[in-house]
Amino acid sequence: MDNVLTFDGEAVEPATDVLRRGGLVAIPTETVYGLAADATNGEGVAAIYAAKGRPSFNPLIAHVADIAMAERYVTFDPLSRKLAEKFWPGPLTLVLPLKEASGIHPLVTAGLPTLAVRMPKGNVGTIIRTLGHPIAAPSANTSGKISSTTAQAVRADLGDKVDLILDGGACAVGLESTIIKIEDGKAHLLRPGGLAAEEIEKVLGQQLHRVDQRAAIQAPGMMASHYAPDAAMRLNAEDVREGEALLAFGPVRARNAERAVAVLNLSEAGDLKQAAVNLFSYMKQLDRFGATTIAVEPIPEIGLGEAINDRLRRAAAPRDGA
């Protein structure tokens, strides 16, 4: 894989060079692999949409090196700052008012007056700091398909559409970031993700308001059909039908599990963190067996289970033309 480079200190300079000339770099974060471009470079941002086949009305997350960099582009309210100070770097994205003459290319915000901002963990911050600008980085996969959690998955999906793929191993969290927007002193959960809602509520001292996912798009990851394998998805399956693959969870199997053409268990112990890490890679693996449908055993709607079920519902939603 000649466009894949091990992500270490020596990879920072070539990655930054690609970004500066408007190219694309697949970067490993703690959530999923991101497809990165300089957020101030219109040519680079346009290349993201082209490589992914992503609708241009779907905004992107801008990744920053620290809170000080974020403050050059957005305005923090007290609650958002409190969350940033507690959870950054980490799997939390904040939707904040964009400052005038920010330099962020309009394609990043998809015309919205806000910018979705996050500070990722790990060495990605070194690249951002060296570049001197935020990087726009949605998940590194074809739009609507399963997010990539390894460099190999990025290469298999996007191939030579990416100038450089940085291999940092498997992602630790395995789910995209949680997206929060503060409005009139109230916290709104725009997308559940790798940071459990309960953890955010503890810090804020208030319950999160869940946004109707049929509402207008306010942030990345809010499209109804998303994260989808080629196979159809049947959720909360209590049995397995002939010819189906099975995405299992916990120690107890659905009825007729022996019928499944393939079985992968997100977590035999029923551990939601382990399930989140395995979700996208297991969906990809089951898809390769050629089953028309993947049956999914019930997963509790608590903690990270809220984000897991969100991704599964989007994967199971009617597709374009369906």
Structural features, described:
The protein is an alpha/beta fold and 322 residues long. The protein folds into two domains: 207 residues, DHBP synthase (Alpha-Beta Complex); 85 residues, Rossmann fold. The chain has ten helices and 15 strands. Strands 1-8-2-3-7-4-6-5-9-10-11 form an eleven-stranded mixed β-sheet, sandwiched between helices. Helix 8 links the parallel strand 10 and strand 11. Helix 1 crosses helix 6. The two termini are 35 Å apart. 50% of the residues are buried. The mean pLDDT is 92.
Nutshell version of this structure?
The protein has 322 residues and is an alpha/beta fold. It has helices spanning 12-20, 42-52, 67-71, 78-87, 106-109, 124-131, 151-158, 197-204, 272-287, 305-316, and strands at 4-6, 25-28, 33-38, 61-63, 92-97, 114-118, 135-136, 164-167, 178-183, 186-191, 209-210, 232-234, 245-248, 263-265, 293-296.
